[in-house]
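Figure S7 source data.
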Amino acid sequence: MQISRRDVQFRIDPTRVPRDWANGDPYETTFMNALSTLFPEGEKFFVESVKQQKHHVTDPALERDVAAFIGQEAMHGREHRAFNDLLLAHGFRETPRVEANLKWFLKRVRRRLSPMSQLAVTCALEHFTAMLAEGLLRDPRARQEMHPDVAPLWLWHALEESEHKSVAFDVYRAAGGGFLRRAWMMLVTTFFFFLVQSIVHTRMMATRKILWKPWTWARGITRMWIYPGFFTKLIPAYFSYFRPSFHPSDRDTEQLIATWQLTLFGSSGIAPQQMAAEAIRDS
Ligand SMILES: [Fe+2]
Ligand SMILES: [Fe+2]
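Tokens for the predicted fe (ii) ion complex:
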């Protein structure tokens, strides 16, 4: 499948978006907000780790995909940074500090891990984003519950995460990366991802003044893990990563991607107005 680089600018007006833009629910919204604050620095890390190893790639098709991957992640970083400014306007004043702390943390990760292990971390997180993206694109309820001004940003990001889900993995393999390192790094990454995400989420819940409202928590956790159980549905996909023969394309999302390319960027799609002129540059 060809991966497209799209120059998309959402320019979301903070005054039109309610503070609890996800399902009118402060728990879910602060969860998504926390994810968004992690994206710009996180995606910079992904790009750098792939760039460090791309000299191993000899297949011209993968070389093209790598260029498209870098372009897509750069756009995600830019648009989520803009979204994080909206969070600032919504009173989440900790947003720049969270980004700075993550930058500090990732600097240490780069120092401690070899380039190959850094790429294995990226493969693990790309598996996370691919799972979340597929979940979002397949679940009508999850996307209908987002405010209409905000939904295109998350759906566009989800679509592109699905489009490029194999790229970091293929570079890892081309560079000679093995199963044991990949599996071990997934375990380590899972621990740190949930730790960091939970810290940021908790901080945002405190700002939103729901930290001491257990019913708000209980309802949010129930919806995410029990009914409808958005995250519980992703557990089998998570464990599939530990098969030695795993490849991201084992999960067939071609049809899903084609549908969403049309829904978002077709002539009557919901996002073309956000695309700069001559926006789609097929790689
Ligand atoms: Fe991304
Ligand atoms: Fe990605």
